[in-house]
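Researcher: Sequence of Crp/Fnr family transcriptional regulator follows. Predict its structure.
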Amino acid sequence: METLWHMHNFDLYSILCPTKINSYFKNNGLLFKKGEVIYFPEDTEQKLYLVSKGKVKLCKYNQEGEEIVKLLLTKGEIFGEKVLLGQSEREEYAIAEGDNTALCLLSIDKMRQLMRDNERFGLFIYKLIGLRVKKIERRLEILVCKDAEERLIEFIKDIFEENFKDNEIVKHHYSQNDMAKLIGTSRETVSKLMSKYKKQGIIDYTRTSITLKNKEELLSYLQQENQ
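Model: Prediction complete. Tokens:
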């Protein structure tokens, strides 16, 4: 039950009946091509979204026009959930990151009904909001205070801590390009560092999983950087 409380382990399809969701999508589905904006900052629409297919990034831009990616979301994850707490305007951009991204549009009334009908789901939504705020705050702090290698190590460490894993295989949906966007560096830098860690026997990495073989050695890089 512990993993229920981590947002990336929660799949809406595992709680709600897929048949009902698919039926609902027929009348409430939205399709986006890669790069299309789903909503802008200051958007006042009081809706939530379920990712049915593809990938969505939540991001903002700094004063220099540089993109800062806050979250990447895939199938079964929801976003725009702060409207449940009375948020009147969006704080970020939501952009389709995958080709043919399909979203299910959910009204506040619909979400509250789903939360009443499923207690586990309702509890998760409130936990989700708090966890996301903390995660985004920490990510922004790391972007400001740490170099590229430190940011990647922190990212890998977070994947395992969030999934309650220790020296085990963790499934993930991040490409190297995704990782680069989330930690504010280039894909080439991520590829070079991941190859280095793999050669040193610290991790094993594929497109769908990461195996942490030597956590102490990985964390030693952080200690060296901080000295």
